[in-house]
Amino acid sequence: MSYLKITRISKPVFWIVMGRLIISPIIALLIIFLFGLSGITAQALFIASSFPTSRNSALLALEYNNYPEYASQAVLLTTILSSLTVAVVVYFSTVLFLEYKLTSQKLTDGIKLIFISIKGFES
């Protein structure tokens, strides 16, 4: 693993990174809303869902010779890119779950704030 060289990002690695950093927080958000979680519990679950792939997955892939190159690249790329995605998820978690009780009106207000923030970044 110490000689990892990424010349291009393959489709499997791309989907691993997308799944871990984008799809996983979306699924966590759906679960949070489905179960009606709120406050610190919702924030912790949402933020933890955006963490990068564990290096243990690369070690296990290397030990069992199960595509260790993909696993190593996934660990490296998710670790680098998670500096951006974790910051975004932390921001959204404070907007969505700042209050301890989540009502549909607060959820609507939170989503409006997110879109206002995104529009502010675009201009």
From TrEMBL:
The chain crosses the membrane at residues 21-51, 71-98. It is a multi-pass membrane protein. One of its GO terms (biological process) is transmembrane transport. It is found in: Cell membrane. Its main location: membrane. PANTHER family: AUXIN EFFLUX CARRIER FAMILY PROTEIN, SLR1864 PROTEIN. Belongs to the auxin efflux carrier (TC 2.A.69) family. This is Uncharacterized protein. The lineage of its organism: Bacteria, Bacillati, Bacillota, Bacilli, Bacillales.
